[in-house]
Amino acid sequence: MATDAPARPAAPPKAPEQTAARGRGRRSRSHLGRFAVFGAPGLMVYACFVLAPVVVSVAYSLTNHNPFSPPTEFVGLRNFELLFRDEEFLQSLKVTVQLTAILVIVPNAAGLGIALLLDRKGWFYNAWRAVFFVPVVLSSVVVSLVWTRLLADDGVVNQALGRVGADPVGWLSDPGLALYSLAAIMAWQMLGFCVVVYLAGLQSVPGELLEAAAIDGAGVLARFRHVTWPLLAPALTINTVVLLITAFKAYDHIQVITNGGPGSGTTATVAFVILQTGFTANRQGYASAMALVMLVIVASAAALALKLLQRREVDL
């Protein structure tokens, strides 16, 4: 008569630490799989179109690369040494700083004022919001061509001045006015962006705070100063950083309207000089050194502005 086999002893219960470790491992593999599906394509695009050009520019900046004058030789940091003795580059840096100061201040101030006027309900105010935003979606080349005709010596603006007995003004031909005219055109195009951002900020201000301030006896200006303006700090941060970057990379307006003139480099920005050096003079090694210096300046200025403005948001 066969005897029953001895019962197999039950497996000891798993320790909670082992169960938790296996759970974490499964979750990490799940996160990795999601990243491979959704994040990897975007990371590859970023690497191809952002990181790779930066690496190539760094390599070119250390050479005298000119596609029409081989061979390419390694020159080390000589391009950077020449750069800070280059009068054309230093002049373009000065022009860029002036343009940036105007472009950061004017659309910000005007955009805030217009947003306050349009912060109402109704189709009339909605229509005006659309009107102010139209220039933002237009091509910079189209805007530049239109304003070039308007501000030409025989353009519509000077014709209107002539009808009222005023002398014509060389808006784009006078070296003392060309940069300011150019800055005004760019500010006009970016005005709608600032208006929309400030309108979004105004509509997020709690009405209860304004009502409470009014009950406490605060007037219109006091409510704006102590309630509305502090709560618009994020909108100010967005507008300032976007305008700062836009001004530093300005090229298409200059190319179409003034081509860097009138005169020698009166309106030539750093971006304009880089492209002229790289694709007109074909000094691509030297242009790459300029581009890297510009990248460092823009990144540093944007990071500093962002840090200071965000610190203001926290303090408020």
Kindly summarize this structure in a few lines:
With about 325 residues, the protein is mainly alpha-helical. It has 13 helices and no strands. The chain has one domain: MetI-like fold (Orthogonal Bundle), CATH 1.10.3720.10.
Topology (elements, then pairings):
Blueprint: H1 16-61, H2 78-83, H3 87-118, H4 123-137, H5 140-150, H6 156-163, H7 178-203, H8 207-215, H9 220-231, H10 233-248, H11 252-257, H12 270-280, H13 284-315
Question: Which features does this protein show?
Answer:
globular, mainly alpha, 13 helices, 0% strand, MetI-like fold, 316 residues
What features would you describe in this structure?
The chain is mainly alpha-helical. The protein has one domain (78-315): MetI-like fold (Orthogonal Bundle), CATH 1.10.3720. It has helices at residues 16-61, 78-83, 87-118, 123-137, 140-150, 156-163, 178-203, 207-215, 220-231, 233-248, 252-257, 270-280, 284-315. Helix 10 packs antiparallel against helix 13. The radius of gyration is 29 Å and the shape is globular. It starts with 15 loop residues before the first helix and ends with a helix. The model has no long low-confidence stretch (mean pLDDT 87).
